Amino acid sequence: MAKKRLGSAGIVACILIGLGVFLVVVAIMLPTYTKGKALKTPLDLHVETVATGKGAVLDASSLVAGAPEVAHDVELEAIRNVTVQDPSNEDVITLQAGQRLLRMDKPAPKSDAPTARDPRLINASVDKVTLDRVTSMPVNNPDSPNGVWTDAGGQMDPVPRDGLQYKFPFNVEKKSYPYFDLTSRTTHPIDFAGEEEIDGLKVYHFTQDIAPVDLAKTVGGTSDKLTIPAKALGVTGEGDVEVHRFYTNQRDLYVDPVTGVIVKGREVINQYFAQGADDDARITALSVSPETGLTFDQDTVDYQLEQARNGQDDIQLVTFTIPLIAGIVGAIALLAGLILGFLRAGLPGRRDDDRYDPPTEQIPTY
Hints:
This protein has about 375 residues and is α+β, with helices and mostly antiparallel strands.
């Protein structure tokens, strides 16, 4: 009987079956593997946010002179530029955020030199923090301690922290989170307030109310505790009195629940000098109007929306779309291989003995 061979059809069937099994396994395993890769803050992050509003601003020099002058209905602009620094790796990302608060009723500096004084500047800082790339919570890193630069000398003030700040975790939950406030250097709960929609994107609304904080105690900057004439504060008596800077804030954040991107932010900041937090005798240092707040401008909201949608698309691609395509192609290949194998083998029940085997003739030998 002639020796049976696999043949080209059999080879193709085996290849299709093997490929189909491989792709089906990939479709099953890929979401588990890629989810851990996709749900991480990207290392090429570079974000600039601009928030605008109106408020009252104190002329600091007038306070020291004993005749405080407060300008009202001043246009305000808060600019924050966030970049990635070392150390950043597979697990952590270090962010550096330069922040400036400007009063737009003053002229811009005449020079672009870094040392040029900006008459519009109310305050500025540079913050550096290392975060977990999944949870967005700060991590202790001896190679890059979390800290803030606020003085012209460039000295970093180490600032430990234990709350979210520039981003929420992936898969945001409807609950309260600890949120770090850079101005007061304190952590307070930020509470889930409901679902909303911004330009067709579902967002979670979080709110945070910060009761008066004595910045002289939590920050201890040179401008947080002053000695001024009693008459400047409006209290009776001769001589000088010591006042502290107090700070409150009402913060609203609108967060993409998939990526944790903060799509929109709004803050109503109030800073004042007083002898006690609840004293009626006080001098306004900065008071943002509740009607405007310091709110992300439209360009910032549009950019953050784009970042959130791009992040959602990337996650969808590697955790759903690619596995789905691999599963469909794998199933088709597997089915095609099985059909081709059955066709090659013949109809069900057909035996090899029934196949035609041409007779052979024995060649005589002499």
